[in-house]
Amino acid sequence: MQWPGTLRSLMQRKEKKGHVHTNNCWVGMLFYRTEPLSGISGPDAFDYIGSHYVLFSFISSDERGHEMPSYCPCVFISAILSLSFIFVALLTFLPLMEPRPVQDTVRVAIPDLEFATTDRIHYTRRLYGKERMAAINSGLGKGYGQLISMGDLRFKQILSREELSTHVRAAWIRLRFQAPWFAYRCKTLNGFEPNSFYFEYKKSSKADVAEAWADESIFWRTESLSHQEWELEMKKIRWEPGSGHVAVEMHIAKGKEPNQWFFMYTFPHQTADARGACGALDTFLKNLQEELEGRAESYHNLPWGEEISRLTPTAALMVPDVGASDLPAPSQKPASTQFQRIPLQECQVAGSDEIYQLVCLSVEETKAVLTNCKRYKASLTAVINSILVLAEIETVLQLAADASPDEYAKIIESFKTSDVFTVAVNIADMHSYVYPKYAKALGGCGTGGCINVAFPTHHNMDHIRRCISVGIDGQITRNFSGSGFWDGVVPDTQKGLVSGGRQPPHAFHVLDQLNEKMAPQIKNFHLLTQSVVASSLGSVERVGLFQPFAPANAEKYPNSLFYIEDWIFGMCATNLPARVGHTWEYNGRLYMNLQGSSKWQTEKSFRLFAESIRARLDQIMSITFELEGEEEDQPHTRVPWRIIFEGEIRTREGKSSSANLWLQLTQNLPSYPTHSLESCNTMLHSEQRLSMINKRSYSLYIRDTYYAGLLKPLVSTLNTPIHDMDQNTPTIAAELRPEQIDQILDNLPRPSYHLASLDASADVDLSSSSPLPQRVHWAMERLKKLFSELEPEQLVFVLPKMRKLMERAKQNKGLDFPEFDQFLRYSGLGRLLIVKEKKGKIPVVRYLPCISDFPPSELNGPAPPEWLAMFVHSDVPSVCIEDYNACCNICLEDFEEPPLALEFQVDANDDDGIQASTKPLRQLICGHVLHEECLPMFQSDDYDETFECPACRAEVWTSLSFSLLSAEIPRNAAHNSISSDRQETYDDYYDTLPPWEKIHRKLLDWVTSLPISELDVALNSTAHGRMVNDIALHIWTSWTYKRYIYSRMTDSPGGVVDCLCVDSRMAWMISNSISRGEHRDAGRMLRESWDTFGLEDAPRLLVVLAKHFSDQRHWVVHKFSLPDGALTTYDFFPEPDAFPASRTTKLWWSAFRLAWPDAAICPIPGMPKPKLVRVRQPMQLAVDESVAAAGVWRNILMGLPAEQNPDLEHLRDAICTEVDSFRQTYTSWANHLSMFFGDLYGKI
């Protein structure tokens, strides 16, 4: 019969899969592929039949598999044909059943590209293409390209070598069974083309061969070296590619810590690339975990010999040769004005020529880099490659000074006039294109082999010259402004990476064939490129590696018996003229391993290269503030402390948003301080815990203390502006009216501690009639809306948790704000709606096969109408997917094809309308299609992690966050107008407030993060006979500082605030950062604390009220004067000689210069010696020390003599009154919330 053209194509496609449909019958036995049977003997013949042929039941069936009457003539025909085939096969293979002796020499026949055997023991295949070229380079280059991977493991129990060796050996042997490519041996193939090699794997029915292999490949080292020192030692280990050496060696050494062991692996590049080896190493560590737990199956019981089914062919057979039409056009030849450099000259070196430097960023620094990447919509790889390019050119320019005058002039001229700088080698990973059957067979261990392609990128020199300039005198200057880098070099690099990185599988085959043709002609090792080589592994954990063993995941995997503190990747760069930048992320930290050869690199050139990279990274992590008059549309680089958040905190104008930052900072505070990852977990006294800040979250704990309209205004005898702290009395008097001067003189013996009362507009929240703070009030309105949008099944999920909240509120006679917020965070109330909304953005699709007649227009493109019409109609959008990609990348199951339409079915009957339901498919934003049931966000409404597409690593799902205090603002409640196409946020509202009102809002936001117990402790501390704690002091000082700002900015035209007050919490955090040498962090904190109030320019004076950094029992006040460099410290120690000098406080000047680089700060040589003033009243009790310090702090703020003795009892009463009123306000808010939730629960 004649088949329609499109239907014939479909039938042909089914024939390739082993299905031939004839007259409503299925032929009994057909094969997937044909292969020569030579070289197979004995029992392996039946193994061959079982692995290459498929037996189907001899029953007639229609297209859906429904059984037909057994008397159908075609059934007997199929049976006869099949039995005949079996008979012929037996006659063919039975003569081969005789066992043959094991051959000790390499067989003469050329090994195929898939493993084959002649003796049922030794399985061999030839190296081809890239892997063959890697072996050649390794041999001629004396180990070039040998890869290393090293982990710093910390065990929870101290294990001796004897205890550990048994478990390690067993886990290593199990890995051989799971990933047999780890046990390949590379040997020279004689009698063939030059530079030919083959892999050999030895099979055994017992574990004896694997045990011998483990004894040969595991090395226990006795040297005492650090983790980074081991890198150089491991790079010395190399072997010839044709020597028959084991594929991978594992070296284990004891660290300096009792529970520390280094696990180090080395393997040549022809065995695997770095990405391909990571999966096997991850499997080994999981094996080790199981061995330590005692739940692993003995490797003696494994079905040895079965692992040969997992022997992998060459990569050219594992990657489909498709996508020729999608191959990018050849890169245009770089402009004739290519940047020229002095050709490097090779020199002889005694001993190892390996040089390297590991750049490792902290968690905070890494987050700063990633936040900038996200802010400027740039990939991390693009940013790193841009840094490498700038460092390479900068190094060339600096080394040019050592060249001859003619060469120097030539290089400088080339830099000024050239158009392009080319990076010849960028690596594009191709593992995602491997046929799923190989990945599935190896179970996540990786397939081995070199499965990547290299491509060049060409970088515009105009953008580079905006970041590097050469003066008339030859001085080289780095431009650290964000404009040249973020809007020039980085987008240019990213464009090149995106264009070159989109390599279809066919590109790999083109490169593989080119390497195969060149391989026989290679006689000497010589790499042409002398430029930088960029390679990135990406985030190790995001690709699912080492997750149970990362310290950051300790809470998620509490049963892990060890964790990996650090992981280092590297390669042997011996004889390499280029510098290699190898980048990866692990445990929240960014690593960059710079490597090269001292035969081509001098100590100076490599040092300059590394210094330039570090300087650019520092630029990204530092603060670059916009200058006055800068154009509004220019990108800014203000990323001080908001680097701790995953989300980008910006307003529509592009400036930083401070209100949400402060709120999130206080919400992320733990109950005890964690100085760093290396700090101890010692629990301190409760007051010390309250005064310390989590270093990792940069939590600036500024706590204001007043709710407008509830605290009685304080009446002051001074109705005057507040003046500079360091001005003397005559200067103050010159600016005051006579009656004001009289008031000051009359009150000197007993000065008042109350500032002038503020205008009502500064104290009262006029935008809302609710008794709650404005942010909380708007959150409550949003909450009502959320409940109205919940579906019945969602209400069933939320109401039980809400009932428990009401019962707890009744039992405890009220609840704290954090308890309400915690309920909303973890009850799933907000997340239910967010998840529902985000799921709706991942569309359901139907899979259709892709044929040559109707190729898709793009990745997983829509089906053409002609092709779509051949299948049963569905309202679900259909996408065409190529056969090699038509499977789920998570479960590795093939997609089910939809049924044909009735008119295209052959001999259709009444049952054709019945079709088994297929698994729903979802199309991700990147275009790839996966089973819905495999996506974790569809498995649970509580999924709250980042999910990336397993095929292309595109970010599909981000962590969810819902807080009582993160609601949007009703538009009619705003003080300013917002475009109607979006809802106004609290940050938009906050940015419209004057500075003193911003302090007020922070006060209201802060109080909602405090449990009422802390306010009780603060209030009790104000009683007579007790030390006023830092929370109570902060309440009083914050409100005082607010009034100071209001007076300065409203009492006189053009009033300027030039004083910054630093409280004890921020002071401790800044001093702690400085003591660790992290001056940038300290500068960020200071600058953010100034900018968050909307204050301009730079402060002239800073007043610090804090506990002594070295002795937390005592209080001090520091006064810094930035213009003249004066530092005065007021101490309150009981003994004159008891005050310990603090070097950390003197180092604050470095933080000032980083915070305000353009400010007129006294240079270090001209600074006067710090002054120490002891302030202590006669008969002053030790418990009054904090009050006395607060009095001095206020004297300085008001411009009064700092040493003037305050009325301690009067001041204590003032602090008590303010804290008590604050406590009552908090209680009224909590009661209102309880009534609100109770009423809401009753209505539902």
TrEMBL record:
Alphabetical list of CDD domains matching this protein: RING-H2
Transmembrane feature ranges: 74-97
Domain RING-type per the UniProt entry, residue ranges: 888-953
Top-rank lineage group of the source organism: Eukaryota
SMART domains the record matches: RING (SM00184)
Key words, A-Z: Membrane, Metal-binding, Transmembrane, Transmembrane helix, Zinc, Zinc-finger
InterPro entries the UniProt entry points to: CAT-like_dom_sf (IPR023213), Znf-RING_euk (IPR027370), Znf_RING (IPR001841), Znf_RING/FYVE/PHD (IPR013083)
GO function terms (MF aspect): zinc ion binding
Gene3D superfamilies assigned to the protein according to its UniProt record, in alphabetical order: Chloramphenicol acetyltransferase-like domain, Zinc/RING finger domain, C3HC4 (zinc finger)
The name this protein goes by in its record: RING-type domain-containing protein
Classification lineage: Eukaryota, Fungi, Dikarya, Basidiomycota, Agaricomycotina
